[in-house]
Amino acid sequence: MAESTAETEVTLRRILALAVPALGVLAAEPLYVLIDTAVVGHLGAVPLAGLALGGTMLSVLTSQLTFLSYGTTARTSRLYGANRRAEAVAEGGQATWLAIAVGVLVFVLGELFAHDLAQLLAGRAPIADAATEWLRIALLGAPAILITLAGNGWMRGVQDTVRPLRYVLAANIASAIACPILVYPVGLGLAGSAIANVIAQTIAAILFVIALWRERAMTQPSLAVMRAQMVLGRDLILRSASFQICFLSAAAVAARYSAAAAGAHQIVYELWSFLSLVLDSLAIAAQALIGAALGSERTDHARAVAWQITGYSLLLGIALGALFAAAYPVLPHAFTDDAAVLAQIPYAWWLFVVQQPVAGIVFALDGVLLGAGDTAFLRTTTLGAALLGFLPLIWLSYAFGWGLLGIWAGLTVFLLARLVATVWRTHSGAWAIGGA
């Protein structure tokens, strides 16, 4: 017998109860980075450049390992939906052991190659030296960063997004207080910023481990479970790498076109990144709810919730697009008063605005398919959209001098290709496989 409409929908209040705290967690790190940048910025150009480069290298290293968050949510939410909460939390314990092992590996490799990588990217010795100093200290927190990713993953899986917000806020507030003190009165300079970063990551990791300990979920490591988690990890790492290739290529082509184009691209891209956090919070809610529904064998409910959240995300995308269209006469001037940069912004701005409703659908359906554990499909289609849609357009843009219009057209094609793929897959229902 088909489930009733009431049984196949969730309330907007329930969705927001998951999405709003998740948005807080997603936004906490960028806000802390802004504070850190403001503090270090007063040390001079070289330390600031060192922080920017070192922070970027650490971010690239750790962003490839977000499977510890998204993959863990996919696995734990199914167990939670099957009323096996203890096993779901135990899955988080195994993800934490995996985070520790991978984090130690990242630390060792990072320490070995930090200077060579910084020198390759910076080219100039003073900046490379500053970046190396910051990165080698910050890498002490690599295991803690990954423990936090795993902690977010299992807590989202059991539909608890409030505790992660408390933990991350506590950690970042402590670090925001420590950073200016260590940099200036204590006199550690750029090293103080890195130490404050490690303090934040360590506090958050300790809080997540304590939560597992209280639930008696830090059992001995299970190679079988960690191997299964790595299967999801492989697909998500490849998917994440395709994003990095696209965004790095876009920045590189913009820089080769002109300094003004590079500046305009950076402004619009940062706004795009911020809005992606807003839309991703609904995707996280979708992931948790879909996983739980499939774990409890309610496949009709999962399909209904998939389209319900997608509808909300589409409306949010339309609202964001309209808001930033209306803000065009004012907002770019808040970032720069350079006439050449302002002249380049429209070539990216209007495509950025048009993308928002599309992104609303794509991000929500990404969350649906991640919640279903359909990572192989997401891996293949994202790589295909990057290699066959985005990259040819962006390098044609470089060859023919299309500038920002070509770059952002490429990003739009990348989104549209993913839109077609995710809508088709979700409509097919092939992802809606019940069971824990």
UniProtKB/TrEMBL annotation:
Coiled-coil portions: none
Subcellular location: Cell inner membrane
UniProt keyword list: Cell membrane, Membrane, Transmembrane, Transmembrane helix, Transport
Membrane topology value: Multi-pass membrane protein
Pfam families the record matches: MatE
One MF term in the entry's GO annotations: antiporter activity
Keyword field contains Transmembrane helix: yes
Principal localisation: membrane
Keyword Plastid: no
Transmembrane segments: 51-74, 95-114, 134-155, 167-188, 194-213, 236-259, 271-294, 306-327, 347-369, 376-396, 402-421
GO CC annotation: plasma membrane
Family as reported in the entry's similarity comment: Belongs to the multi antimicrobial extrusion (MATE) (TC 2.A.66.1) family.
Name of this chain's protein: DNA-damage-inducible protein F
Source organism phylogeny: Bacteria, Pseudomonadati, Pseudomonadota, Gammaproteobacteria, Salinisphaerales
